[in-house]
Amino acid sequence: MKVRLITFTKDAEKIVSAAAKLCYSPASIDDIIDNLESEDSQKFVKMLSSLGHESPMEHVTFTFGIEGISRACLAQLTRHRIASYSVQSQRYVEEKKFGYVTPPEINQNKALKKIYDESMDYIHNMYLKVAEVLKQKHFEDLIDAGEDEKSAVSKAQKMAIEDARFLLPNACNTKLILTMNVRSLKNFFNLRCCNRAQWEIRSLACQMLKLVKEVAPTIFINDGPSCLRGVCPEGKMSCGKIQEVRDYFKN
Questions:
Q1: Which domains does the chain have, with CATH numbers?
Q2: Which of 4, 71, 81, 192 is catalytic?
Q3: What is the pLDDT of residues 84-126, one digit of tens each?
Q4: Which of 13, 68, 122, 176 could covalently link to 87 via disulfide, CB atoms 3.0 to 4.6 Å apart?
């Protein structure tokens, strides 16, 4: 898994402060912004966070480049609907030699790892075989319909991998560019940094949190799983490691 912060809203704390202050001030927007000092903005953002007043934070966004996660992880990630996703398409990009994610429990067992890798190799070979057969079939149909050869090759290729992709496993690697506003990120971290989250998306969330804290520490000062700020919301399903979790995210 490779995660990097591509870009983010500059002067994030200042923008959040200005948006919040505007709601209660008769001053012009220019006056509000011009009178904001960096230290005052930090204090105001901390106050907003303590009050749970997060709507002004929607004006600030962070954009990530994410590679090497599985399609299974992508399915969980896109459940966070207030976000923008641009994902590499299996419909248009042929998986000539797809990479895949191996769960740690399988990776630690040599016998299981061998079965897993052999299964992936088999699926990949079948994918290529099905794609080739479909490509030839579509090519011949297109030529018979009067398509020129160059165009027929291109269209046949697309049509073939469009159907062959149904063979590809959840483990198959994907890559995407993701943009979320701060409010959505806070909700994402609450849910996905939790020990109860699935291991892959938890790893992704923790890496993303580390990146945003480096550039906007005040905005994300208390972020992480929900138990950092109170009792565990999982109830009887709690991991039971609240102090360990708090110590980890304190660093």
A1: 2-87+176-221 (3.30.1360.170), 104-167 (no CATH)
A2: 192
A3: 999 999 999 999 889 999 999 999 999 999 999 999 999 999 9
A4: 176
